[in-house]
Amino acid sequence: MHTGNGHPHRSGHPGKHPAGSPKSGNGRAPYFPDFDEAPFLVIWETTQACALACKHCRAEAQPDRHPDELTTAEAKTMLEGIRRFGPIIFVFSGGDALERPDIVELTEFGTRLGLRMAITPATTPLCTRERLEELHAAGMSRLAVSLDGPNAAVHDEFRQVEGSFHHGLRILKAAREVGMSTQVNTVVARHNVNDFRVMADLLTELGIVFWEVFFLVPMGRARPEDVAGADAFERVFHHLYDLSKTVPFDIKATAAPQYARIVLQRKKAEMRKGTRDEASDILTDGAAHSLRDGIGRARGVNDGDGFLFVSHTGELFPSGFLPKAAGNVRTHDLVDVYRDSDLFVSLRDKNRLKGKCAVCEYRPVCSGSRARAFAVTGDPLEAEPYCAHVPGRWLEMVAAGEAQPVEEYFRERALAHGVPLPVTN
Ligand code: SF4
């Protein structure tokens, strides 16, 4: 549920405007949108209630709704606040959003305000065709479901509920039939890193417009040992890049801004070989597929930078994977929190990054997952622990005795934060 901003860059080379130069301002690449004023999308964790008990669940979902969830009236006030950012994308997430009886009413309300509405229901029997018809009539543009493997055996084991894969396929089919565009979300973890070609074939058959691939962040129920590792991430990035040239849907890597580095590296290599004549339209291969429903995607979205997450009780987080609150919709103005809170401002300032990300030539387009840095080290401005790239400048600093080797650097910080695994590149 991400879209381009319509300003393809023309320089292509990440080193062309060095971070901190007058052209890069807060260190962001000049061809990326400026998210200081408004996020590209807001996700609301409508409820923690969910019939599933997924192994990696960020929300640590529970069978019942929390008594302190935002009420219908509070949710409407929140939607009005979000509309002050502009006609941006708003996503009902969870838990299972369909556990809330007011979800159709809130969809209608948000649509009337001019927000572009999307939903990610759980793959359970609760998501009936009738419910989908109501949601579509209320203005829901897109529906996304999770499929974490190419078959029931892989997916259901990961989701811990037999029949979840079947319901996912059923919901995608029904959503298309009632007129919504469809998206699939897939978590990359150790259990499925080798299934991506088969997954792509299945998704092609399903007629989706967007494939959002989530790279696991070790928080919620996800343990550090479930994360596939930097080298496995790198292999998946290359698969995704190859697939993005041929599949009839858009692909986005979430919690993995380093995919932008891979795209640039691959495009530059193709230019050198003469198989590509421009490297400028970073991350736009396939983007037209996801623009059909007006939702699309943006480049350069990162935690707190183009993105705002509201918890089921109204806390304002830079992302669902970075549980550090900067306010609450019950007590704070959400627009002020996004624009001016220390946490959000610091996350958008790439000049405040630490470790190898601070000296990386790809920092203007990447900057690493702030959520994963926080999960592993406790500091959201630390370097991304699961990126295989070691910048040349960092190697020079290590040789000069000014910096630690990467493995040592992360192991020390992870251990200090109580994360027992050595994080390796
Ligand atoms: S070192 Fe950091 S900024 Fe550079 S590519 Fe890796 S995650 Fe991105």
Briefly say what this structure is.
Helix content is 34%, strand content 10%. It has 425 residues and is an alpha/beta fold.
Explain this structure to me?
This protein is α/β, with parallel strands linked by helices and 425 residues long. It has two domains: 302 residues, Aldolase class I (TIM Barrel, Alpha-Beta Barrel); 66 residues, no CATH class. The protein contains 15 helices and nine strands. The protein has a nine-stranded mixed beta sheet. Helix 2 packs parallel to helix 3, helix 7 packs across helix 8 and helix 10 crosses helix 11. The longest helix is centred in the middle third of the chain and has 15 residues.
If you consult CATH, what is the topology of the largest domain?
A: TIM Barrel
CATH top-level class of the largest domain: Alpha Beta
Could you list the spans in which at least 5 consecutive residues all have pLDDT below 50?
Answer: 2-24, 279-284
Q: What is the H/E string?
A: EHEHEHEHHEHEHEHHEEHHHHHH
Give the radius of gyration. Answer: 20 Å
| CATH architecture assignment of the largest domain | Alpha-Beta Barrel
Rounded mean pLDDT is 85
Strand content: 5-15%
Main sheet? 9 strands, mixed
User: How many domains, as an integer?
Assistant: 2
Q: Supply the helix-strand structural class.
A: alpha/beta
What ligand species are in this complex?
Answer: iron/sulfur cluster
Count of separate DSSP helical elements: 15
